[in-house]
Write a structure and sequence with these properties.
Enolase-like, domain 1; TIM Barrel; 2 domains; four-stranded antiparallel sheet; 22% strand; globular; binds 2-succinylbenzoate; binds magnesium ion
Length: 374
């Protein structure tokens, strides 16, 4: 396909409520969107980098630079036929996976439209609905957390994930379990613990959590493997898994029993499918993580979640949990059973609200192919 233009935008979108993890609080999102125009069609991709380089090395600003100066020009001069061509095109750029994913996913988005099939189908999805959970940030008080859980359970969500850190863990799990002995509960530490905490983490077993997500270092397999031997509760890796090779190493070393797949963290749909397949072949279930995405990233997460081995509820939930107004139409909604229906229409299944995007745009840059060729 001929790439006519790549338009990069930064949108400022306030969250409906602040989201706190072990590494900080997010109140306002700076969302990077890539719009790729090709032969009369428009594909969209979202960069899931955070405002600060705390979840990974990337941030909104590093991704902007890398897309404008490296990845955008590479893509515009290459005429990819498939989303799957992008990893080869971007091969010389090390890392910067969230920046790469924004462009690669926009090409898949375009390809689905060009082929006249749903993005889910193009990716190899088999599900008609995907099971949903929610990720609940650290709260000012346990009472506030309990009332949030009550609301999410009433909405139908199938799994509650609690962000945790030293000082916001055992006491919290105790109060939640006392009130709801049977709900599916998990926790996510975002690397908040160290080896001195092993006995403490082992005490989480009492709460029968579905999993403990990324308790130790963001770049570790070895110590997670040691920790897993001491736990009943399965470890799920998030930050540590960047590609299929990482997934194979983690599974082989028994560093985890479950894998969280995030499109940005692994560099786009191609590698996400590769991680999914590697895990499936080895009997390791996966689920789709979230990065407080706008509707575009959310639509892509939904399509990815339709693959067969996404058997556990993901962190992909309704637009209204994040945004007063989402940038897609219709907004993402979740049924009383805690499921999102996969659209069968061609493309991503959600229209993009260009007028609203224009209003939320804080900066914009156009990368035109003809200015780069020759
Ligand atoms: O580790 O899953 C995480 C949000 C930002 C950064 C990291 C994570 C998260 C979430 C939120 O847990 C998931 C969501 O609701 O989008
Ligand atoms: Mg996580």
């Amino acid at each position: 396909m001929r790439i006519d233009a790549i338009i990069l935008r930064e949108l400022h979108m306030p969250l409906v409520r602040p989201f706190e993890t072990s590494f900080g609080v997010t109140t306002n999102r700076r969302v990077l969107l890539a719009e790729i125009q090709s032969e009369g069609l428009t594909g969209w991709g979202e960069c899931t980098a955070g405002e600060r380089p705390y979840f990974s090395e990337e941030s909104t600003d590093t991704a902007w630079q890398v897309i404008v100066h490296e990845l955008g020009p590479m893509l515009a001069t290459e005429s990819p036929e498939h989303g799957g061509d992008c990893p080869r095109i971007f091969h010389h750029v090390r890392g910067n996976r969230m920046a790469k994913a924004a462009l690669e996913n926009a090409i898949w988005d375009l390809e689905a439209q060009r082929e006249g099939i749903s993005l889910s189908r193009l990716l190899g999805g088999v599900r008609e609905t995907v099971p949903c959970g929610v990720s609940l940030g650290i709260q000012p008080s346990i009472a506030e957390l309990l009332s949030n859980i009550e609301r999410e359970l009433a909405s139908g969500y199938q799994r509650i994930k609690l962000k945790c850190k030293p000082g916001w863990d055992v006491e919290v799990f105790e109060r939640v379990r006392n009130r709801w002995p049977d709900i599916t509960l998990s926790c996510d530490a975002n690397s908040a613990y160290r080896l001195r905490d092993v006995e403490h983490i082992a005490s989480f077993d009492a709460f029968e959590l579905l999993m403990i997500e990324q308790p130790l270092w963001h770049d570790d397999f070895f110590y997670h493997s040691m920790l897993q031997k001491r736990l009943q509760t399965p470890i799920c890796l998030d930050e540590s898994i960047h590609n299929r090779r990482d997934a194979l190493a983690a599974i082989e070393a028994e560093s985890c029993k479950i894998i969280n797949i995030k499109l940005g963290r692994v560099g786009g749909f191609s590698e996400a499918i590769a991680v999914h397949n590697a895990a499936q072949e080895r009997g390791i279930p996966v689920w789709c993580g979230g990065m407080l995405e706008s509707g575009i990233g959310r639509a892509h997460n939904i399509a990815l979640s339709s693959l067969e081995n996404f058997t556990l509820p993901g962190d992909v939930s309704a637009s209204a949990r994040y945004w007063a107004e989402d940038i897609i139409e219709p907004e993402v909604t979740v049924s009383r059973e805690g499921e999102i229906a996969i659209a069968d229409a061609p493309g991503r299944g959600y229209e993009v609200r260009s007028d609203l995007i224009e209003r939320l745009t804080a900066r914009k840059e156009m990368i035109r192919a003809y200015e780069l060729v020759g």
